[in-house]
Amino acid sequence: MGLSTHVLDTMHGTPAAGMTVSLFATEGGVSSLLKQFVLNQDGRNPDGLLLDAATLKRGTYRLVFDVAAYFKMRGVALPEPNFLGQVSLDFGVAEATQHYHVPLLVSPWSYSTYRGS
What we know:
Immunoglobulin-like, 1 helix
């Protein structure tokens, strides 16, 4: 089924259009960049799934969301250093035949995530 993400800006009550996101495969202490993209107007990858069913493998992954750059782009005055610079979410895929959706709800001062559907 694949891997997807969706980011909502809880400060403005909108999708986080324009945020840069990086996807890594991780193994031990090594991270390998799989792709980097900018979220579309719906706060999603413009190309759809991050990894399709044929590409998603059992293992560990990391999504890195460039939160500070996004909020600066939106004109939010942030302190230096920022409370949140980049948000990294490490997660595991145990059943590659299932869909893994990793949403992020974020403001300049907080975030939450969960395994969505």
